[in-house]
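Lab notebook, design round three. We kept the backbone fixed and only want residue identities now. Task for the bench partner: fill in a sequence for the structure below.
Input structure tokens:
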């Protein structure tokens, strides 16, 4: 899985480092370091980290299907009597 962080946009809130510490880390107080080739085993944590970034600085290829329910899942059906 490929990650790209816009380091010009990143403000160092560190939500990503908190949610996916094996991929993201702060070096010093504001400098983010990350692994641009994250392992598939980190998929769910990465999806949470991407969603939690307050400035939307993280882009990740291949996360589109994480956490989505299959079509029709969670929908109630009503039966007329």
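Proposed sequence:
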């Amino acid at each position: 899985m490929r990650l790209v962080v816009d380091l010009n946009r990143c403000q160092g809130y560190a939500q990503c480092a908190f949610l996916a510490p094996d991929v993201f880390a702060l070096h010093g107080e504001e400098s983010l370091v990350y692994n641009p080739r994250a392992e598939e085993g980190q998929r769910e944590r990465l999806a949470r980290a991407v969603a939690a970034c307050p400035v939307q600085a993280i882009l990740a290829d291949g996360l589109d299907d994480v956490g989505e329910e299959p079509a029709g899942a969670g929908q109630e059906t009503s039966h007329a009597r």
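Keep this in mind before ordering anything: Confidence is low (pLDDT under 50) at residues 66-79.
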